[in-house]
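User: Predict structure, ligand iron/sulfur cluster.
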Amino acid sequence: MNQQLTTLIDKIDAILPQTQCKKCGFSACRPYAEAIAEGRADINQCPPGDSEGIRKLASLLGVHPKPLNTSHGIPRPPLVAKIDEHLCIGCTFCIRACPVDAIVGAAKQMHTVIASECTGCELCIAPCPMDCISLVPSNEKTDEASRKQAASHARSRYQFKLQRLEREKQASNKTILHKTTIPAEIIQTSGEDRKKAIVQAAIKRAMATRALAIDSNSSTKP
Ligand code: SF4
Ligand code: SF4
Ligand code: SF4
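Assistant: Predicted complex:
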């Protein structure tokens, strides 16, 4: 990617609200910014950004503003998720869905939303099997400076989550590959059994490496 394009993407991303809600049709704000910069998406697909966001994007790109495409959703006042802790069964589905790690809890334990970190993206609602997450009005400030600060904070938390997931994936990959190495006791043996074990371990290792490569390719696609 050339530097000019990267700079444009940075500027577009700086305008987007960083809710990371996917309503624009992309997996997060940054991929939407990339799509706008590359002419693959229109400027009116972000409901949280609303008309003010569209106006800023239009001004940046030197095009006319247009109405929000409401097929992507409608703007709404700031909301925050709340979990009915009496109903929560601790399945952790919501934690996995949250793009900014705003939910705390462990398997089979009650979960809680950290209201100050919640972007109100709604991504935790659908996966909850107990329907115990609702959105309630947020008391976050909506002036320009506060919104910018909140967006910057949400972007950092989202990037941190991506890095954490990547670290966990690398650690898991290492474990899988480690399990396919030839055990020392087999290396020390001799004869046909040793040969067979070495061939089997090599096949397992090749299959595991191939599976990881396929997994890695599919997870990097938009
Ligand atoms: S806030 Fe939601 S709709 Fe707007 S760009 Fe980010 S992910 Fe897309
Ligand atoms: S707690 Fe729910 S609504 Fe809040 S940021 Fe996380 S996924 Fe989005
Ligand atoms: S998805 Fe629902 S039931 Fe599962 S941990 Fe989250 S709040 Fe609890």
